[in-house]
Amino acid sequence: MFSYFVRTLFETSMKTIFYIAIFLIFIVAMVIGGDYFYDIYNSPATSVKGVTADEDKEQPKKISNVSNNTVHENTVSNNNAVSSTKLLTKSPPHLQQGFDWSLPAYADEAKYSGLITEEDTTIKAVKNKFLMVLWSEANPEQGVFDFSEFERDLKRVAPQQVLVRLEVNSACEAPAWALNQIPQSSKKSLIYWDKAYLDSTRPFIQAFAIRYASYPQVIGVQLGLADGDFNGSCGDYDNKNGWGEYWMSPDAIAEAEAKFGFSPEIFESASKANFDIYINAFGKNKYKLALTNIGNLFTYGQGAERYNQKLNALSKYALEKGIGNRDGAIEQWMSYLDKAYGNVITSMPDGTCRLDFDEQFAKKIQGRYWGTENEFYGRKDYVLARHGPFSNQAYRELISSLRALQMRRNYMSTSNGLRDVDHPDYKTQDFLKYLTRVMGKSMENTPDAFVLMGERYVAAYRMGDHTEQACVKNAGDKIAFRSFGRWITESTQGTPAIKISMPKEENYWDQKYYLPEGIDYEYFARESKEFSFDVNDELAQIRCQNGCEVEVKAIFKDTVKTTLNIQVAEGITQNIETSGDNKIKTATFALKSSFKQLNENTDILLKSQQRAIPLIMLRVNLL
Fold first, then answer.
1. How many structural domains comprise the chain?
2. The pTM is what?
């Protein structure tokens, strides 16, 4: 009886265990099978409209390996590019017409940055003013200083902040007592290397600095020498042809050498002496000083190299002393390529150059006045004569301003003429607001990063700082630049697209200062089926170490019907379909990533499944 009971209990228990095991196996099968079918249904080939695109065959892809400023081609299988085929489940991608300049809600204006104008303006994005202080008015007698006119100007423009130029370079703007002591050129530029000039300007600069160096409303003071010419009488301001921009024409050099004992050695010693007057006067506020030329060109023509070499050394001297810079013509957007500005050139496998930036240099200049001028806009005759028709102004303003951002400019002087400039694709007025919220930012607080695509050409004579680069020395007189940006670089195997003509009859849009002979165009985009991007490693470490929410915005011309998606190390976004209506659009992809590399030097991969597209720009909003 007892043995029967035990046997029955054992058989019942075994049946129970068997049924439990079957139940558990069923549950596991449901989970695994459910995930499998979910992945099949929601594979990366699934578009926003729910239409499955053709299967993307995995082929070996060419990637880039950056070493010693040269990118070498490597071939790897894209099978290992993504650690997981996980579909990124953020909000579906979307398209909108034209450039999308939206930024995260937290993005605001940097404390020390902004747009500046010399005129009264109705452009809301412009919140700073340019003012001049005439030496003749503020220092009417030796040892007597009267800044009442400047005080009235400050009150008139408040709460705007001001960039100031002390007019100490021309005989037409100097007090009579000083003219009795300081020699002047035939065109009325003061001889700044004469001891009388140093002795006369020093007290005036010191007096201004005592009152205004630490004044919050004063954001910058230009430091310029020479270039004080007037073409005619002093009584007519229209005759003013010199702005203290620290350069001299060959004729001015010849006169200075023949009549006033000028030489490269005197140029160097006198420049340092003048710099030191400002630096000592401004003390801890010397970061507000903006030297008006830190490039490689003080003069041109025969014998220029002797002076230009000294300028290079003087620029380093000034920057080491802690002062800033204000260059003068970002309108010629490919003019500023000197290493003195922090530019780095990387040679690409196809023979083109990529324009990058020295991040250590960026840290060095952070917090200084680091400005530029971008002023030739509107319908005035001299603007149209120099820069071509009004219709080109939206494009010019877009490219030149993006170049200013690439050069880390925190201030930019512009023109009230921009109030009339807009474009249905470039969205100029929205772009101005965008500029005010991204200028002056560092890796720690930038709301975005970008790279501009295309192909832009520069004559060989402008490349003296970079002759060691393969893309320069092997290119003849037509050096091709494929991209520039801020905290994003690209290594796409593509071709130039969207040709922009700048014809001779329109004065080359004033780009003739760097264009190679016979070239009157550039390209606005690069065309490919696959675009590779690298987010700056330090930026990714600071902002995205544990992953960060971002919006990747691809601006392209919708020339073909195709399917786009974004691939990062964490997975692949949903697809979005284009229509081929030939309009400029922005495709926005929301995702979360720490920007760990998919492949070497590739953190973000933009893919067009069926046909190549012309990509103009990639921008990443850090949410």
1. 1
2. 0.87
Burial class (CB in 10 A: 0-12, 13-18, 19+), 153: middle
Q: Quick check: is 282 in a domain?
A: yes
Residues 6+ apart with CB under 8 A from 55: 45
Residue 137 CB burial class (10 angstroms; 0-12, 13-18, ≥19) = middle
Would you give the DSSP letter of residue 279? H
How far apart CA 442 and CA 389 sit, in angstroms, is 36
Domain, as residue range, for 139: 114-446
Q: What sign does the dihedral 258-260-266-271 (CA atoms) show?
A: negative
From CA 422, how far away is CA 24, in angstroms rounded?
66
Work out the burial of residue 581: count CB atoms within 10 Å of its CB; fewer than 13 is exposed, 13-18 middle, 19 or more buried: exposed
Element holding 431 (H helix, E strand): helix 428-438
Tokens read off for 44: 């990366």
Task: Read off the CATH number of the domain in which 172 is found.
Answer: 3.20.20
Cβ atoms of 521 and 515 within 8 Å: the answer is no
Residue 612 lies in a domain: no
Q: What share of the chain is helix, strand, coil (3-state, %, to 5)?
A: 35, 30, 40
Which of 286, 291, 181 has the alpha carbon at shortest distance from 244? 291
d(CA 372, CA 114): 11
Between CA 366 and CA 287 the distance in angstroms is 10
pLDDT of 565-618, one tens digit each? 999 999 999 999 999 999 999 999 999 999 998 888 899 999 999 999 999 999
Helix (H) or strand (E) holding 135: helix 135-138
Chain segment 42-67, per-residue pLDDT in tens: 344 344 433 333 333 333 333 333 33
Strands 521-528 and 495-501: antiparallel
Give the pair of three-digit tokens for residue 17: 């265990």
* 33 assigned to some structural domain: no
